Amino acid sequence: MTDPVVLLERPAQHVAIVRINRPDARNALNMEVRRLLGAHVSELALDPSIRCVILAGGEKAFAAGADIREMADADSMEMMRRNSLRLWQQISACPKPMIAAVRGFALGGGCELAMHADIIVAGDSAKFGQPEIRIGIIPGGGGTQRLPRAVGKFKAMKLLLTGDIISAQEADAMGLVSEVVPDADVESRALAMAQHIAQLAPISAQQIKECVLAGQDMALPSALMLEAKAIQLSFASFDQKEGMAAFLEKRKPGFEGR
Question: Alpha-carbon distance 60 to 37, whole Å?
């Protein structure tokens, strides 16, 4: 039997890694990978023991894009039946903080997958881009929508319309990644960050993510109201009482996610 094309790892308490495992294809996103990514993330979204999820690939590629061999002969009806949007939505719907640990290529669907995360830790040799225009299509996993929201219209349009591939340092400068570290440190840094987040209040983390993602598409007064209701709701939680008591008692809080 061959190894699964997506691995589910649990390297630390409250943390899971969903790893793409097609090294011979530079982790290209075929339909099997897409289905398993969606299934694993959906499972973790419902797992109360998991508080932070890491998306990872391999040393040479996070994901080099869609599997072109699987797409080249497809027609419109076949692409409609595949319904890839539903599989992407399984990832975007995850309420828990998500970190992308990116080494090597994150192109096309790989770049879009990384942008589904809340934090991107990039290795210093990582490469990002949306080169779909070079093969006669457009991004189909949110690239035309998430990239402008991340870096602004003019930087996004340059990448989308030229298909250019940029370095981790360029991605950092335009705000596409959270931080750049040496390649050898990418996963250890992502894991340390995930463990740190997992020690904090899980309900607060989920509410922060919900407010940021929902609020960015609202008018400011509506977004501020969303935030106000979220903080009011937090005062019904055990974690709020525990966190504030621990602060006053000068001790470490024991958050339980309730």
Answer: 19
Strand partners, 118: none
Domains of the chain with CATH codes:
6-199 (3.90.226.10), 202-248 (1.10.12)
Catalytic residue among 132, 142, 156, 205: 132
One-character DSSP codes across 83-132: -HHHHHHHHHT--S-EEEEE-SEEETHHHHHHHTSSEEEEETT-EEE-GG
How buried is 159 (Cβ within 10 angstroms: 0-12 exposed, 13-18 middle, 19+ buried)?
buried
Distance (Å, whole) CA 131 – CA 116 = 18
Residue 66 among the catalytic residues: yes
Measure the CA–CA gap between 178 and 71, rounded to whole angstroms: 32
152 flagged as catalytic: no
Digit-coded pLDDT (tens) for 102-140: 999 999 999 999 999 999 999 999 999 999 999 999 999
Does 112 qualify as catalytic in the annotation? yes
Tens-digit pLDDT profile for residues 58-109 = 999 999 998 888 888 888 998 889 888 899 999 999 999 999 999 999 999 9
Considering only CA atoms, which of 188, 139, 180 is closest in space to residue 160? 139
* 8 A C-beta contact, residue 183 and residue 59: yes
- Side-chain half-sphere CA neighbours of 150 within 13 A: 26
Q: What's the rounded Cα separation, in Å, for the pair 147 and 164?
A: 14
Q: Can you count the helices (H) and strands (E) in the chain?
A: 12, 10
Q: Which of 56, 66, 122, 171 is catalytic?
A: 66
Query: How would you classify residue 97: left for phi > 0, otherwise alpha for psi between -120 and 50, otherwise beta?
Result: beta
